[in-house]
Design goal:
- 41% of the residues lie in helices and 18% in strands.
- It has 152 residues and is an alpha+beta fold.
- Helix 2 crosses helix 4 and helix 3 crosses helix 4.
- It starts with a helix and ends in a 9-residue tail after the last helix.
- A hairpin with a 5-residue loop joins strand 4 and strand 5.
- The chain is built from six helices and six strands, in the order ααβααββββαβα.
- The longest helix has 13 residues.
- It has a three-stranded antiparallel β-sheet with strand order 1-3-2.
Length: 152
Amino acid sequence: MKDPKEIFNCYCKSHGMRCTPERYIIIDEIFRIRGHFNIDELYLRIRKDYPHKKLSKGSIYRTIPHLVKAGLLRECFIDQGHSCYESALGAHHHEHLKCVRCGKILEFSSPRINTIEKNICKKLKFHMIEHSHVLLGYCVDCQADLPKKGVS
């Protein structure tokens, strides 16, 4: 896998941007996260791991779109009004299941779903550039805590 900082360096140079130490901190912290995150979670992690750095939440909000455009991040879905992200480096195409009770996120892939999407786009003469699927429900652990519906 390529180094995210090198990729971002190339992106910044081609867009006339500077690669600041703050942006490198954001990249470092993102690639320490193994999974999905939102900007608030990322901000709190950075504050905890770099307590002496003055890095505003606004800096993160301004940097994230550039990381997406550079191909380092992918916006997965919107959860309670917040965009959730995950690393795009080395990631395969997948969909998401999200437990509405505990917040657990599971990933799955389905060639059948991909084929259906392509067929729908072809039929409707639609050029898809991006998509996301999030199925909301209860994970197996949270299902155990749900009230049982009896059959009479």
